[in-house]
Amino acid sequence: MSAEATPDAVPVLEVRGLRKSFGSRCVLDGVDLVVPAGSITAVLGPSGCGKTTLLRIVAGFEQPDAGTVAVRGVQVAGGGADVPPERRRVGVVPQEGALFPHLDVRRNVGFGLPRGAASTERVRECLELVGLADRADARPDQLSGGQQQRVALARALAPNPSLVVLDEPFSALDTALRSKVRDEVVGALRAAGATAVFVTHDQEEALSTADRVAVLLGGRVAQCAPPLELYRAPSSVEVARFLGEAVVLPGALDRDVVRCALGPVVPAVVPTGVGVDGAVTVVVRPEQIVPASDGVGATAGAITYFGHDGLVRLRLDDGTDVEARWAPPLLPRPGDRVGVRVVGEVAVYAGVATLR
Amino acid sequence: MPRRRPALVLAALVALAGTVLAACGGSTEGNGSALPTIDDTASTPSGTITVYTGRTEALVKPVIERFTAATGVKVELRTGDSGALAAQILTEGSASPADVFFSQDAGALGAVADDGLFRTLPTTGLLDVVEPAYRATDGTWVGTSGRVRVLVVNPTLVPTPPRTIDELLAPAWKGRIGFAPTNASWQSFVTALRVLRGEDGARTWLTAFAAQQPKAYEKNGAVRDAVDKGEVAIGLVNHYYLYEKIAAEGAAKVVARNAYLAPGDPGGLVNVAGAGVLASSDNAVAAQAFVRFLLAEESQRYFATTTFEYPLRAGVAPAADLPTLASLQPPKIDLADLESIAATQELLASVGLLTK
Amino acid sequence: MTTVVAADTDAPGRRRRTGLPPWQLLGPTVVVALVSLAPVWYLIDRALDRGWGAAVDELAQRRTLDLVVRSTALAGFVTVATVVVGTAAAWIVARSDLPGRRVLRVAFAMPLAVPSYLAAFAWVAWNPSIAGFWGAALVLVATTYPYVYLPVVAALGRIDPAQEEIARSLGWGEGRIALGLTLRQARPSVLAGALLVAQYAYMDFGAVATMRYEAFTWVVYGAYRAGFNPTRAALLSVVLVAVSVVLVTAEGAARGRVDAARVGGGVARRGRPVHLGRAGVPAAVFVTVVLGAALVFPVFSVVSWSLWRGGAGVSFGEVFSALWATVGVAAVAAVVTAVAALPVGLLAARFRSGLARRLEQATYVAHTLPGIVLGISMVYVGVRLLRPVYQELPLLALAYVVAFLPLLVGSVRAAVEAVPERLEDIARSLGTSRSGAWWRVTIPAARSGIAAGTALVFLATMKELPITLLLRPTGTETLATRLWGHTTVSDYAAAAPFALTLLVVAAVPTALLSGLLLVRGREDGGHVG
User: Fold this and answer.
1) Which of B21, B24, B338 is the mutation pick for testing C, counting most C CBs within 10 A?
2) Disulfide: which of A19, A100, A193, A206 matches A66 by Cβ 3.0-4.6 Å?
3) How many CB atoms are located within 10 Å of the residue A160 CB?
4) Following DSSP, what letter does each residue of C382-418 receive, concatenated?
């Protein structure tokens, strides 16, 4: 399936002001999301934040309390519309594949297709897309977790859906397997030209796989941007914290430089709305704190070794605790005196945020 | 409220169904005896009849075959327990498919007659071949063969058998009597006792009998065998059990003997198997012809020689060495009164003679 | 394959369906429920024949209360005993290392093939003094423990062994694990089986009559066959209906609380069997006693009947035609019951609303009624509403459906519950309608559980006696009715071939039942390696 993704094409998915509560628990509180054709969007958020609910509403298994959902410009939920799942053309790949146990792979993939020669061909096509054309006669219980996931994807793609939603599709797999399967799945999606939305709580996964990442915090989309932009310029301290390890420090804005406990740092974007006192909050990534003989003095504390790098806890001379990530050859011993400075641009926000 | 409505809908449907069923109810009682009697000898019987019988198939089949051979009328036989069949007929009411009810005992016949479901039988050649004591007073059913309650005794243990049931209560017989508490004939005897001596009289005798610690057996046959072996000295059974054993094993091998009770003693009750024609019958001519056939000499002799029962047709003698009914002078009782077996069971249970 | 303790995307509470289920499901279920309640209508109607006053008088007698107490005592004891025997047997087969487990798995289910009236008679014939409460209890436990055994052994096959391993690492001994963990997880299955046993203990007639234990059913039978008093019989039966409602409600309440902690997650690998060591001796004794009493003894008795007088005059033609009729009728009954049970089970499994629960319970209410009561009710209904098929196969099949529907509804419900709803959602996302998804995905995925329930109904129908006697087409005899006919006149030699054939043929669906349960563990939807 290839959509001619002209820039002004109708977005495949448009969610506006979606609200959903379960009892007294408000899970989605005004979610806005636009997914352009041919893109892979990740919805990233902590466990229990409502991302699965969002998926289920988009797919049609739940009704929103308020807001609208439109697929390819056609309103399917909200505003009086309630198109049942079987007519929405939204494919679903759930967390554990969920292949039909009583059917073999071929019949699983062909489930959503009418009988006929064209369907047989399409099934073969989709299986080839996911690289499992040779396992067409296998039964689900004969396949590994990763293979099942790929068959589930083929099954979802076969009827040419407008959109494919994947629910934490890789979290059920071994770590070693995960990235391999991820690559294969993403490859298949791109090769098919499909538009996909997948939810995950794994930042690494979201940032490395998607074209755009929507961060879901507090029932809303806090920021939706390409991964690089998101990581470099998170729209708020909460988003910044969520996307990775963060060292949050107070600072003072002085023209276009910010002074903080780690010395002078350069903001990626100069924030607006900074008060007269110049109080700002600075978010620095541990990998940006590098050893420097002429930098701020600090004492090394505990060191956690990860193999490819290590996390060093540092106590700056002024008492602030920070964490830095250094390559193994550079790792100090606990108690050593080191000097540190910040490289690269940092995220800076007006006002003072809670530090922990 | 949408949630309460389903329950209301269900309640409404339930009430509706109940009303429909109740409306289709109404009295099952009939008024068969008001129907004019038909003369089945005037026309040739033909077609098919359905006979409900509480007698064993092996016994009844030869009679049926001869009837069909003689008249060409086909018979569909439905076997069951006489009491259950009576209950079935009572429930079926005037819509019963049965043409003839051939019962093992008079109580069941009485119950069906009471509900007005039998039609009156013609007197000539049918009712009048049997003594009034062995047929319904209103002519709705007629006995076909009789059985006498006797004491089966082991002569070596019992040189002088008791002649009345009161003599059975003598201390000499304590622990040496056998009976079959669940047997219908025993229960009929107790019912007769209630009729002849009143409820209190029956209770008195039964309590005394229970104090004799009689041994309970599953069936009459087991009682007879126990007497034969000498396990118990006396058994309360029907007369033909002894002759069954003699016929099977030869007179030389059988030790036990029948001891008949004194004239008029309740213990010598004669009960009958009998038949009646259902008012609902759509082939009353053939049905009556069948009942007539049961009373024919040929059939009567058959009953006499096969099961050693007493033929009730005047002029047909019982088998070999059986004393005639006339000489036995069984107690005078309206057989229809043997209907209240349930009350008998309650009485027996309360005295401890029925259940453990 | 890692054992996954995955974040459950089906959060509790999420699946609560509000509003009415679709009409395609609700309609048939309501029809089935109403049909199941037909006997109750007849009984209430009949019981009030002579007015409320007479009814209350009749019921308020001391004797009625006595009978309820006696029947309840028996039912209570039998239920507890079958739970113990059934779960112990299931645990031995599923979790221990006792040799011969594969054979035992099927053997333990075999007593289902023995009709209670046959077993009772065999015991009493051997030793008449066994009659009374203990004899009745013995026979009832022996013939009904499989109702607990079968679902529990299936449930045990689905339990995640990781839990037991964790418990052991926390210091729990094997015994404590077995009782406190493994069997507790099987509680819903135990409860479902216990309900069926309790109902059976209340309604069985063959065993209590032969054992001369004065129970409720006896008096009901007496009211019909000796009292010719259908009103009294109906009144007493209404009491049984009330008992049934209590039982069903209790089971529903107990099951409801356990549902949340359902056995979940399906694993392909089996846990390591528990080594019995010295406990193997009592286990072996248990196995011997149970199978000896419930299976070997009745079969042996029946075989010895046929040797009694050398099997003279056995009419193979009669045996064969009875066999043919039995199998034919049972097959029709099983299929019709399955068709009726599907919507009810689906509704009960997928919709947790009060309405769905009431409808499911409605099908269970008539199960406590003795066979003769059901039979007479259907005679009444048949003669008035369905005259053309009265005493024909359709009405007989309908009566069997009313009698045995609970057996299948429970199986369907359990089997469908084991199929994740997620599969239906996916099917819908692929373009199938909701009811289409049930038809194409849920039911096929649940087929071994459904088939097991169908085999159970097939079996129950083959053994059935009182309803068959009342409603069979005139001239048709089944193995059970022939058997009955001969034993009433104590012609055991003639009865033996029918009894033997019945036992042998009944063994087939019984073996199928336990075999299907072997397959079941592997085919639960989505639970793959």
Assistant:
1) B21
2) A19
3) 14
4) HHHH-GGGTTSHHHHHHHHHHHHHHHHHHHHHHHHHT
Considering the domain architecture, whether residues A283 and A327 belong to the same structural domain is answered as yes
Q: Which chains touch C (3 or more CB pairs under 8 A)?
A: A, B
The answer to the question of residue A356 being in a domain is no
Whether residues A218 and A252 share a domain: the answer is no
The reply to whether A215 and A318 lie within a common domain is no
CATH architecture of C43-308: Orthogonal Bundle (1.10)
Beta strand pairing call for A25-35 and A220-225:
unpaired
Domain boundary among A195, A223, A239: A239
Task: Answer yes or no: do B88 and C376 touch at CB < 8 A.
Answer: yes
Helix extents (H) in chain A: 51-59, 105-109, 117-129, 145-157, 175-192, 203-209, 227-232, 237-243
Going by their DSSP bridges, the two strands B142-153 and B257-259 should be labelled as: antiparallel
Please indicate, yes or no, if residue A107 is contained in any of the structural domains.
Answer: yes
Residues in chain C: 529
Contacts of C103 (CB under 8 A, 6+ apart): none
Query: CB atoms < 10 A from the CB of C281, how many?
Result: 10
Whether residues C124 and B95 touch (CB distance < 8 A) is answered with no
Question: A101–C526: do the CB atoms touch at under 8 Å?
Answer: yes
CA distance to A24, A31, B281, per residue, from A219 (Å): 14, 7, 79
A219 in the same domain as A271: no
Question: Which of C45, C128, C474 has the CB atom closest to B76's CB atom?
Answer: C474
- Supply the CATH number for residue A313's domain: 2.40.50.140
Residues A135 and A233 in one domain: yes
List chain C domain ranges: 43-308, 310-529
Of C30, C228, C233, the CB nearest to B13: C30
Contact flag C522-A141 (C-beta cutoff 8 Å): yes
Q: Is the pLDDT of residue C272 over 60?
A: yes
Output the pLDDT for position C13: 35
C-chain residues near B355 (CB < 8 A)? 132, 212-214, 218
Per-residue pLDDT tens digits for B86-112: 999 999 988 899 999 999 988 899 999
CB contact under 8 A, C37 and B92: no
**A223, A239, A255 - which closes a domain:** A239
Q: Which residues of C touch A92 (CB under 8 A)?
A: 425-426, 429
Residue C298 pLDDT greater than 70, yes or no: yes
The residue ranking higher by pLDDT, C160 or C432, is: C432
Question: How far is C423 from C413, CA to CA, in rounded Å?
Answer: 16
Looking at residue B3, the DSSP 8-state letter turns out to be T
Per-residue pLDDT of C349-400, as tens digits, reads 888 888 888 888 899 888 888 999 999 999 998 998 888 888 889 999 999 9
Residue A103, domain extent = 2-239
Confidence of residue B149 (pLDDT cuts 50, 70, 90): very high
Scanning A45-84 for CB atoms below 8 A from C yields 47, 52, 56, 59-62, 84
Contacts of C524 in chain A (CB under 8 A): 101
Predicted TM-score of the model (pTM): 0.83
Question: Is there a single domain that holds both residue A16 and residue A150?
Answer: yes
Amino acid identity for residue A330 in this structure: L
User: Are C43-308 and C310-529 in the same CATH fold?
Assistant: yes
| Domain annotation covers residue A235 | yes
For residue A69, give the CATH number of its domain.
Answer: 3.40.50.300
Total domains in the fold of chain A: 2
Mean pLDDT of chain B: 87
Residues of B in contact with C23 (CB under 8 A): none
- Out of C214, C384, C470, name the one closest to residue B355 (CB): C214
Residues A231, A272, single domain; the answer is: no
**CATH architecture of the domain with range C310-529:** Orthogonal Bundle (1.10)
CB contact under 8 A, A101 and C1: no
